[in-house]
Amino acid sequence: MTPLRLGFVGLGHISTKAHLPGLLPLVSRGEVVLQAFCDSDEKAISEKAREFGVTRFYTDHREMIEREPLDALYVTIPPTFHTDAELLAAQKGIGLFVEKPQTLDIRQAVQFESAVRRAGIVSVAGFMMRYYPAAERMRELVSQRRPRHANLQFFYTGAPVRHWTNRMELCGGSFVENTIHMVDLLRYFLQDDYQAVSAFYLDRPFDPDPKAINLPHVYNVNYRFRAGVVANVTTSRVLTRTHAHRWQMVVVCDDSLIEYAHDRIVENGEVVWQAAGPANPFALQAEGFVAAVRARDPARVKSPYPGALNSLAAVLGANASAVRGGQVIDLEAFCAGT
Ligand SMILES: NC(=O)c1ccc[n+]([C@@H]2O[C@H](COP(=O)([O-])OP(=O)(O)OC[C@H]3O[C@@H](n4cnc5c(N)ncnc54)[C@H](O)[C@@H]3O)[C@@H](O)[C@H]2O)c1
């Protein structure tokens, strides 16, 4: 089997701690080679290249994409730094993996989506939660019921984490940066797209320190799906000095209250599915992406970049609604810029 040649743009936390470890078994089996790395941080790139045994590395992705014979490209950079790597991958006709949130600029997302779709390349937006075996079982279960509404809660620490994820202007806020996973997963379960959003946020008191966390305390978001199902999603970062947290997804169908967790599914108080053991969704996602690129089949991945535009629009639309005092945002019009 000829190994697929992979390039990486962005050698930070998620690529080195999750994607690359997930790919290493495929490297050992000779199914892929880590052809080249690119990171704008000169010091980081040589260290990471050495750590993963990569001899060809760059600080400019355009140079890497032009010079290296790549079959697929991972773009794993913070959401405000996207420029044209997606367009270049589409032009070259190579596989494309982009971490979520794909960008904070909906116009840019629409431009990239259109290029990827027209090129017909295999593409992934990094919604790895779709790769938990539980997610597949939940999707099947929900398809056999009549869902009416959903309630998602994500309450976690309000303490600052690291610079770019502390700043609204760099990460888009916790709802965009983090809760997007749950928002996307609900779309996967319901097999439907978000149609409209209305949101109220509770802002944090202003702190003039440019390094301080400036994200809202609370994001309270209401959705309607195209088929009429409604959902409420609350993200809270109020719990600063306690370890208390909550991650909960509940889907209510006719006569069926379903509670979803990555290791088990409970319906009407009874456990109806339990994971056999721990799963590594990043590794499963990597295998799925590589298999799809090899087969040149965009339909083989669970989260193609074009479809993921609706999950991104749903969270960026929530931000837009909150800024406009809770105004209902039609997501198709939001994507069209009207
Ligand atoms: N799926 C998940 O669970 C998950 C978890 C964490 C992060 N993420 C996402 O992954 C993306 C990256 O996050 P991270 O935690 O790895 O960030 P990070 O800050 O740890 O690393 C980002 C790296 O990208 C590099 N970079 C920035 N702009 C670049 C450019 N134009 N060209 C080349 N390199 C560039 C930086 O120098 C840095 O090394 C974000 O969108 C984040 O939301 C996803």
Q: What is the CATH topology assignment of the largest domain?
A: Dihydrodipicolinate Reductase, domain 2
Q: What is the overall number of helices? A: 12
Bound molecules: nicotinamide-adenine-dinucleotide
The main pleated sheet reads as: 9 strands, mixed
How much helix is in the residues? 25-40%
- Radius of gyration equals 20 Å
Tell me, what is the CATH class of the largest domain? Answer: Alpha Beta
Number of strands: 15
Q: What percent of residues are in strands?
A: 25-35%
Kindly give the count of domains.
2
pLDDT under 50 segments (min length 5)? none
Give helix and strand order, one letter per element, not per position.
EHEHEHEHEHEHEHHHEEEEEEEHHEH
Task: Compute the separation of the termini in Å.
Answer: 49 Å
> Superfamily at the CATH H level of the largest domain?
Dihydrodipicolinate Reductase, domain 2
Structural class per helix/strand content?
alpha/beta
Gross geometry: globular
Average pLDDT reading:
97
Q: How do the strands of the widest beta sheet line up side by side?
A: 14-13-12-11-7-10-9-8-15
Can you walk me through this structure?
The protein has 338 residues and is of the alpha/beta class. The protein is built from twelve helices and 15 strands. The chain has helices at residues 13-28, 42-51, 61-67, 85-92, 106-119, 133-143, 163-166, 168-171, 174-190, 281-295, 305-323, 331-336; strands spanning 4-9, 32-38, 57-58, 72-75, 95-98, 123-125, 147-157, 194-202, 218-225, 230-239, 246-253, 256-260, 264-267, 270-274, 329-330. The strands form two sheets. The chain has a nine-stranded mixed beta sheet. It has a six-stranded parallel beta sheet with strand order 3-2-1-4-5-6, sandwiched between helices. α6 crosses α9. The protein starts with a strand and ends with a helix. The protein binds nicotinamide-adenine-dinucleotide. Nicotinamide-adenine-dinucleotide is lined by residues 9-15, 38-41, 44, 61, 76-79, 81, 99-100, 126, 128, 164, 177.
